[in-house]
Amino acid sequence: MTEQSLHLGEFSLIMGEHEVDANGCTVNADGLKTEWGKSESATATLTSMMRDGDRVVGVRNGNRKPVIPVCIAGPDLGAVADTERDLARLTGKPLPLRWQPPDANAEPCVFDVVWSELEHKLDVREEARARRYFTLSLDALPFARDEHLTVTPALPVATTATTNTLRTGASTSGWSFRLDVAWWAITFSTSGGLLGVTRTVSDPTRVGQWHTFAIVLAQPENTSATPYVTLRYKQAPGSPRLTFKDGSGAYREPVNQFVSPTGWTEATFMSQGWTELEIVGSAYQYDLSSVAIQLEWIKASNRPPVRSTPRQLVRTVDVGGSARTEGSIHIDASAGTVGDCLVFTWPRTLGEFYSPVLSAYASGGTTVPDSTAASGGYRSLATAQSWLVPAHTLPSGDYQIVARLKTDAASDGTRRLRIQVKSWMGSTVIGTPKEEYVAPWLQGGLEYGLANLGEFTLPPTRVGDNGAVDIVLQRRDDETVNIYADELYALHEDGSLTMLEQYGGKHVWIDAPSLDEPKGAIWVGNAADGSDKWFASWLVGGTGSWDQHVFDPEGVNMLTVTGGCEFAKVDVTHYRRHHTHVSKALT
Amino acid sequence: MSRRPVQPVVDNRPMSELGEWGEVTYSEEWLHGCTTASWQSTPGVRHDALRMGARVQLRKKGWPVWAGILQQPGVDGMFYARGLWTQAERVPAIDGAGNATYVPDTAIVNAINRGDLWWRLPDSVSTAPVLTDDEAGSAGILMVADLLDRWAAKAGKRWGVNGRREVYTSAWPALPSWQLAPGATPLTPADDDVANYLIGRFLNSAGTYEPASVVDTLSRDRFGTRAVIIDLTSHGVLDAGGAVAILDGLLQGGKARMGWAEPIEVGRGDLLNMGGAAGQAIKVGDGVRVLGAYDPTWTSAPKSFTEAVAGKIDHRADGSLLIYPEGKASRSLAELLADMRGAA
Questions:
Q1: Which residues contact A344 (CB under 8 A, 6 or more apart)?
Q2: How far are the Cα atoms of A83, A117, A140, B302 from residue A94, in angstroms, in the given order?
Q3: Which end of chain B has fewer CB atoms < 10 Å from its terminal CB, N or C?
Q4: Rounded to the nearest 5°, which phi and psi values hold at A348?
Q5: Among partner residues A60, A423, A455, which is closest to B275 by beta-carbon distance?
């Protein structure tokens, strides 16, 4: 059996049977009276249309206050006083409190102590036995964390791209299905290169019910050299999200999910070690035979998915634990330069279809190809340009609209733009469009730069899944300079944004706040080991943003844009945080 | 869970670089824009950038929502800043040659070029003189804020400086942009300030007092005659047209409508845009509709909803908002004292 142990910094608060400290004393916490304390959460009560009851939302969690009674026993009271000195020197300082529960299956739990106090309780009879009793009162961050950082390494990128098509919807072979109920039948049909999965029922009372189904793709192909497996599918409107399993029964999240303007979803998985891909979904039985899902293809590639170009990468990070935490992000752009840089992280729970990158939704107009553009091209704002975004990819809330723009002016300056947002259903505008005039400071000389164009509550009118949100951008009539839009980003309020101006170096580090560095830090440099880095807040001071990247335990998605580099390598480190005890499960 | 909403940036340096920070609050008013901001830092924090007169911006994910000037930092780690518009109280409205000008754009552009105002003027306020020749004769040099206040009074509009340092002008909105769910916050009407018959008394160019008056007939028919005598002599010499323009501006600014007794408190999720999406991107001057709250204050006919214009918004540290409807009557001692100071 693993011995239990409790340490404040290096100071042991539970000693073994024959163990003594440098002063010849033993120190032992009273296990029965030790309390880990409770974190007080600050909440806000919201009004709602519910007739009874209130809606309560969390604002933040306060510190927990563990209390540990400690007995110091020694050969004499002089030695006991020496050990008391050693312990008292540690109080009032930020230190980790490490608790190893008495079980080899249990992970050590670490509380970050920010403040501590030691109180002596006099007991005259115990003095004669050279024992003294103390109460150690701690003030610690609310959640326990892992002892070690969790590292999410950069996704591997092959130099030469290879993509194999594993299955297409043109053939029914190689697909198999599992059903949850026997009275349900399923048929495949191929039409126009698409595999339609139709559920049929003979009993009309089954119409109007939900049913789950599973599509299984056994993986006879070896994808070890092409681990990025992408599935292109389309669900019936209003269907709940699909879930994916890897053959061992474990659920897997896509590393990237993208909804095309025509409503097709491309989900990419990192498939290393998988034996099969099982797609589990549920669908509504609209009539005797309803189409549950359509599948177009499954492809395997040796390169991670990109958004429009490899200057824009989206990936997911498994966070784990049960409480939110902060992540440190490192961008390695040594294949080029960082250039203008945007890092946006958002909780996976925001919705799997949400994508902050909008260039794929550019509608009408002309895109001029440009190899230096993050989206692969630019659109002139001399006329109104429209980005028509499927409504269900934009969860309701406040958004910052950020654009990557360039101008043909000789110098930098204030440029005038008009931005309009409106909701569409079919060919009808729903509600009143919202329009703002903005005057961002833009770079001249046809250099791309990121500009924040303001805050909008989207969608302007809530519409169903078939609706769309239109974001229209145009140079104002009184603006004489030509303005070109490369990419447009819609950044939801629940995400965290760091945005840097042009930087010609190779690396960016966004460090999470810690007890040693409570403010966090932002660094840039050229050496991978960070030896020549320097503090880079001047790169965010002008028009940028520097945020704490808050990681939700259910996972975060991360967009990184590097204007000067394709396939920048991005790695992430964080501490998993847990309610009181550290769980072993990694996700 | 809430995110960290806004970060102060002082002299283009994020506050995270300068010290720990939290508890950020800020206010904006429809007339004048950004007014006050404060945040808590470590007591005794010192940094070159944290000095009186430093430029302050509050940024929400990079988007500047408030702009102003740092006041003398205290030793308790509490920082206060005043809105950027206050610069104009101490900057003269003069043209390039140093002569008095009564054209808002000329006064602003020259002050920006001299470096006296840290503003931007993306859109013209007005290229016409605010004062007529008669009025200008004895006006002398005005401060820029005074000139813009006079322009706003005559035009029935508001002016201010927003978080992007931009001068804006704004009129009473025709349509609301926000709504509150039924029963969220009923507003109590207050009739203290209702006036539908405004009689002004002004000084003409001959140096004698002269009356001018305007009537809002709709309001008079509904609430009865509520006359008020307004002393316009603080505007200096006026002609009859100028005096009527100021009185008309007051009517357009809501004087003839009933005011409100209390502000609206909204947490996240309480405020919806007109399309039903929850958000808090409300600005001063935006209209807010409170559904399900019967409104007796409309001059035309009562409505089954209440509409108010956000005249002042306090952004509190917990992310909630306090929206003061334009025309909110003074109820607390502090507000009443502020009214008296304003009148003196």
A1: A356, A489, A491, A495, A496, A497, A498, A558, A559
A2: 20, 12, 9, 62
A3: C
A4: -60, -30
A5: A423
What is this structure's pTM? 0.88
Q: Which residue has the higher pLDDT, A496 or B253?
A: A496
CA of B110 vs chain A CAs: smallest distance (Å):
17
Burial class from Cβ neighbours inside 10 Å (0-12, 13-18, 19+) for residue A351 reads: middle
Q: Which residue out of A453, A522, A546, A552 would a mutagenesis test of the B interface target, given it has the greatest number of B Cβ atoms within 10 Å?
A: A546
Distance CA A121, CA A69 (A): 10
Residue with tokens 């930087």: A503
- SS3 assignment, position B338: helix
Alpha helices, DSSP H, located in B15-168: 15-18, 104-114, 133-136, 144-155
Closest CA to B288 of B314, B266, B306: B306
Closest residue to A459, CB basis, from B12, B65, B277: B277
Q: Which one of B16, B21, B268, B313 would you mutate to disrupt binding with A, by most A Cβ within 10 Å of its Cβ? A: B16
Within an 8 Å CB–CB cutoff, is residue A94 touching chain B? no
Residue numbers of A between 512 and 551 with CB closer than 8 Å to B: 518-520, 535, 537-538, 540-548, 550
Test A44 with B268 for CB contact under 8 angstroms. Answer: yes
Segment holding B306, helix H or strand E: strand B303-315
**Tens-place pLDDT, residues B25-39:** 999 999 999 999 999
- Joined together, the tokens standing for residue B8 give 């102060």
pLDDT at B224: 83
Q: CA–CA separation, A450 vs A338, rounded Å? A: 13
**B1: confidence class by pLDDT, cuts 50, 70, 90:** very low
The residue among B41 and B269 whose pLDDT is bigger is: B41
